[in-house]
Amino acid sequence: MLLLQCPYCGVNAEETELAAGGEAHLKRATVGDSDEAFEGYLFMRENKKGVHLERWRHAYGCGKWFLAARDTATLEVFGTYPAQTTEPPADVTENIRAKYPDWSWKETA
Amino acid sequence: MRRYSVFAVAREGLRYHTGWERAWRSPQPKKKYDVIIVGAGGHGLATAYYLGKNYGITNVAIIEKGWLGGGNTGRNTTIIRSNYLQDPSAAIYDKALKLYENLSQDLNYNVMFSPRGLIMLAQTHHEVRGYQRTVMANQLQGVATEWVTPEQLKKLVPIINIHGPRYPVMGGLYQKRGGTARHDAVAWGYARACSDMGMDVIQQCEVKGVRTEGGKVVGVSTTKGDIDCDKLGMVVAGHTSVLAEMAGFRLPIESVALQALVSEPIKPCMDVVVMANTVHGYMSQSDKGEMVIGGGTDSFNNYTQRGSFHHIEETVRALVETFPMVSRLKMLRQWGGIVDMTGDRSPILSKTPVEGIFVNCGWGTGGFKAIPGSGWAMAELMAKGHSPLTQEFDMFRFREGKFIDESVAAGVAH
Ligand SMILES: Cc1cc2nc3c(=O)[nH]c(=O)nc-3n(C[C@H](O)[C@H](O)[C@H](O)COP(=O)(O)OP(=O)(O)OC[C@H]3O[C@@H](n4cnc5c(N)ncnc54)[C@H](O)[C@@H]3O)c2cc1C
Ligand SMILES: [Zn+2]
Description:
The complex is a heterodimer. Chain A is built from two helices and six strands; from the N terminus they run βββαβββα. By secondary structure, chain A is of the alpha+beta class. Chain A is globular and about 40 Å long. The mean pLDDT of chain A is about 95. In chain B, strands 1, 2, 8, 9, 10, 11, 17 and 18 form an eight-stranded mixed sheet that branches. An eight-stranded mixed sheet of chain B has the order 5-6-4-13-14-15-12-16. In chain B, strands 3-7 form a two-stranded antiparallel sheet. The radius of gyration of chain B is 21 Å and the shape is globular. The mean pLDDT of chain B is about 95. Bound molecules: flavin-adenine dinucleotide and zinc ion. Zinc ion (ZN) binds near residues 8, 11 and 62 of chain A.
């Protein structure tokens, strides 16, 4: 059973209180972009066995979207953070690097 | 290979069963093969089998990190049907069903195919319209399915409650030729036949890297050393993205956990497979008498082969309303598998950006039923470079917007 702390209301929410929203930090493809860019935006989700940055909604709580860093191989949670950001914050990145020293996010790789 | 037959049983019965051979060899890998298949699940083994049987390509290794059939193939609830909506799906799933009908004879291995019939319940007006449309589509495709009324349904499935308070049963989509088979036997039967053709099934050997030269595959690195090949087939279901990354390309796949459970064995009470997509649960009875139950996938990416508990509760809750007698049953076992989901809920059988690498994946929650057809088609693709059965299942269809939308037919995980 997955527990994630909502960064807005502070509740340690159990999975049934949350709705999963897929990969985080997606950049919308737009007019003039290539077919490949659209394909990437619409379908090519990150699917790492390891670190995954993802969106969640505190659906049966405060109702807000937030982001989480989680290990898909172990279900370990590295941290949650508000959705109003374009990259994972330093404390979350640090938690990830403690386990995966070589980890780099696709946007910074 | 010594064939299995009634005479073999009699012969062995008279000599204390000392003469049975091992069903397949466990060889060490050679330096090089014409074809390497990664993943000894049903789809990988069937691909190898039809490469040998249909195209005479037998210098083949099937490499498996665990034990053969230990992935989703050995974890699934064995529902077999071909009542999909789109033509390309009907073609490959019905090919599979036809092959299943003679698979035991073909492999000389009893896969316990049981065409007991399958019903998908319609429990909303939306579903009624959806399934009536599917029946018509199936007629055009030459796949025999029919619409049954609640009363006919009650005769076929006496234990069902058609007057549920929230979701009464309003009819159903019935495929008489659908049913189940023994999952392990499918993997074992293909493995035995592959081994008999001289192919090497190499278990306990994990592929760790894919070696390429000038955009062309030359081999794989494994826990048993480097092995070379001319062609490589990736058939690893939930681990497809991991393998693709080794070869340097991406696929539109997400991996999630899907669970199933079985009850204590009881006397025969239901001789069809029943799926309830709205309430999200399905059930059949195994030959041992256990009620085999499945439901929905988890909603987040996961590789742990362990699903969330609340899904079990939801599934069982749905089935208790549909089959009230289930409420008195004890559940014996629960398990999970990692399924490979695509955006249009259809599989990918395709060439890849790397020359010589082919991929067969994306069967998601419903690929057991497709094993023989998928292997047949994938073998053709790998041997000839194209196959009428696979061309629409190309990995590049997402870029083109040419989806094979089966989100309705695949409504409940099965
Ligand atoms: C709970 C559950 C219920 C299901 N119910 C149904 C159903 O009723 N009907 C139906 O049609 N389908 C069902 N399915 C789906 C079906 O099980 C799958 O679509 C099908 O079995 C996939 O077969 P496969 O051969 O592609 O994959 P798998 O059987 O998973 O085989 C892939 C193999 O690749 C191996 N592998 C992975 N990575 C590596 C590596 N790096 N090196 C070497 N080997 C590797 C794995 O160990 C595995 O054995 C269900 C699935 C689940 C989980
Ligand atoms: Zn909250």
